[in-house]
Amino acid sequence: MLFNSFNFLIFFPLVLVIYYLLPYKSRWLFLLVSSYYFYAASEPYLIVLLLISTLVDYYCGLKIGEFENGKKKKAYLWISILVNVGILVTFKYLFFFIDSLNGLFEYFGIEVSSSEKIQSFRIDQVLLPVGISFYTFQTMSYTIEVYRGNMQPERHLGRFALFVAFFPQLVAGPIEKATRLLPQLKRNIAPDVQLIKRGMIIMAWGFFLKLVVADRLGLYVDAVYSDPDGNKGLPSILAASFFVFQIYFDFAAYTYIAIGAAKTMGISLINNFNRPLFSQNISQFWQRWHISLTQWIRDYLYRPLRRNGKINRMFSVILVFFIMGLWHGANWTFVVWGLINALFLIIEVATNPARKRIFDLLRINTNIRAFLGWGTSFTLMLVSLIFFRSPSLKDALTYIQNLFVLPNLHVNILNNYFELFLSFILIIGVQLVHFYKGNDKVYELIENKPKWMRWSMYVAYVAIIVLFGINRQESFIYFQF
Amino acid sequence: MKVFILKITLFCALLVLSYLAMVHKLSEGYVDMYYPKFTQSAKSLIIGLSRADEGIDPYTLENGLPEEYNGPVVNFASNQNYFGSVYLDAIKEKLVDTGNSEKRFFIVTVSPGSFTAPKGFGTKGIEAMDRKTAIGRANDFTSMPNYSYIMNCYGNGLYNAFIDSYSGGNLTTHTNGWNEVSLESPTFNITQEVIKDWKRKNLAYFERRLPKEEVKPYRLEWFGKTLEHLKSKGDVFLVRMPADKEVIEFENKNLPTFKTLMDSITHAYQIPYLDYSIGNKSFGTYDGSHLYSESAKEFSTILARDMLRHLKNQP
Predict the structure, then answer these.
(1) Is the Cβ pair A125, B159 closer than 8 Å?
(2) Is A434 a catalytic site residue?
(3) Does residue B71 come out as left (phi exceeding 0), alpha (psi in the -120 to 50 range) or beta?
(4) CB pair distance less than 8 Å for B125 and A127
(5) Distance from B211 to chain A by nearest Cα, in Å?
């Protein structure tokens, strides 16, 4: 079920009301059933994978908890990892791997069989189970934490299943650690009007970001990316820039709705963003963007893989970003996007002392340094995200070439300058709110304001959503991952 | 808590009522170029992709056919309407039930592109993709005003209800579903130079798309089911739309078996196949693929004449 659908508009208030009406003891069951319904609403049979992942990790968690040390403990951890990665590979990457293999054979002119070259390895791409990368990572974090002794295994199968399937964050995160979310799911939460209000304001901000801003930017971005040859020069620069904001607002919107929905139920989810587009360098960006994933990668991949020495550390960074890229999607474009970011990061760290010396020598003040850093980071993200958005590497390279075809001042492919103007205003407005309130305090826009101001804002909100919302019922970009 | 619930209910009611009011307001004026395809039930239909959407004028067709075929003829073709379960369901919804008592016709247009989908997509993937199109999202294909279409398929801000979003440019959207493209308009003239440029871009687009798409058995299977259904309702004509020589050559080069395939299908279903991709007569396009206003009218006249010849030869 999409957050931005009429179904959710009915589903969520119903769940919230029933949740608080029910006695504490049966809430977990109600939330679990609701979460499964939420997930199964689009493709019911895909819930089987969620159940497999849940049961395997529940069992492995218990078994890992039984042993203090030794091979058996490790064996159960590996079972958990292999099953989850196996599900991920089969349903997300198998077609990609085989397609790449076929491409390789084709490139080298190798005939797999005499009658049918290349086409011998053929499978159909299966429908990607929504949120598979998110819930497999979340549930793997549980077995790893139990293995590391940071938490006791959860004995209540229902509560554990709810931890895996909790609907606000099931399909696109934030990827919660069991140590954070599981204890919250056990608490008896009394209805708190202030908290519910706050949650709803956060959700409302998320809906605004999705319906009014991200999907509006998407109209322009989609139009340019679908016809790169027809939109060389300024339109391609504009669309590439818009995409940086589109993907951020789209993903942030989902996160706001998830955080807000959970908050109304008294559950606090990790904040996935911390003003990432104000970052002054690439490493800062990665500390502020999709925080739950970067923390997961840091804790369960980078730190265990990291070895001493510059070269080893460099390889760890490349490997981690390779995996990060692949996590986002089964396409070489995502892999290249990850590797480009690794390269940016390595260059940034390697040149840091030299850059500092040059700035000192030229007596460039901190504000200008910050501005230059921001400009450079934004431009680098813009370029790398062209790979993220393009359907193939060839398309991405063509797109990058098109950036430099100037002058082409005919930016308005939608034949509507008002929409373009509105997009700019919205980007500036949203970024100002994020600048002053951060990603975690948007509710302060309304909270504790005088009554007349609050109600004026509510009415303005209704008018903006109704008049300027783009009702494409497009799923969130991160759903595909 | 009670006060809070009351306030939140009031807020939601305000939101929903404002939204519905705006949907209604928009429905009173121009919605978008596909809206008229969803606002009436049809006796006869034109089916296919964008070439048929812009290339066949139902009004000209009706004029060229005997009176007994008159009735709402709707151009139900659009750039997203590939053969599949979603399209057939939409066609079924669209057709008014005449109980086989009246004469009706169905023009099913084809090109190699009608049977393709992204490489690697299985049945579920193709169906999921088709469900995201307008015909997949809409629940209602025949109402005027069609609120369901606006709520599910309209992709712009509802503020357009207050402005004249119908630009009156090169595109004229007719109530029978035909999208007419004129070479001249007060704002923009499609000159020969523009046509040449658009054709080049179109061919480049086809080249780019080629490695990513393939002909799917799923599409062919549902194409057969569509023909079968339509045959039970009236006279079916399979039509390959005309296009510029280079575009047709490109298609034939990349799917050389297309003609044989169509021949075998028409033979199997016993329906006439009118192939306008061959022959001496050429029709002007504005981008190599799509007919502009005058050539669409001319083509529709010739199509009606050829259909009539087939109808007269029927036993």
Answers:
(1) no
(2) no
(3) left
(4) yes
(5) 11
Inform me whether the C-beta atom of residue A468 falls under 8 Å from chain B C-beta atoms.
Answer: yes
d(CA B32, CA B39): 12
Min Cα distance B165 → chain A (Å) is 9
Is the ipTM beyond the 0.85 threshold?
Answer: no
* B46 strand-pairing partners: B75, B107
Strand boundaries in chain B, DSSP class E: 44-47, 73-75, 105-110, 116-118, 171-173, 179-181, 213-215, 235-240, 273-275
Look up the pTM and report it. Answer: 0.85
Instruction: Give A-chain residues touching B203 at CB under 8 angstroms.
Output: none
Chain-chain contact of B124 with A126 (C-beta, under 8 angstroms):
yes
Fold of B2-313: Rossmann fold (3.40.50)
- For B187, name the nearest residue in chain A, comparing CA atoms only: A415
How far CA B115 is from CA of B213, B216, B224, in Å, comes to 10, 6, 11
Determine the residue type at B142. Answer: T
Going residue by residue through chain A, which has 481 residues, state the pLDDT in tens, using 9 for 90 and above.
Answer: 888 788 888 899 999 999 999 998 899 999 999 999 999 987 788 899 999 999 999 999 999 988 877 888 899 999 999 999 999 888 888 877 887 777 777 777 665 544 444 444 455 555 678 888 899 999 999 999 999 999 999 999 999 999 999 999 988 879 999 999 999 998 888 888 889 999 999 999 999 999 999 999 998 898 888 877 778 888 889 999 999 999 999 999 999 999 999 999 999 999 999 999 999 999 999 999 999 999 999 999 888 887 778 888 888 899 999 999 998 888 899 999 999 999 999 999 999 899 889 988 988 888 899 999 999 999 999 999 999 999 888 889 989 998 888 755 565 555 577 888 899 999 999 999 999 888 888 888 888 889 899 889 888 988 998 899 887 666 666 666 6
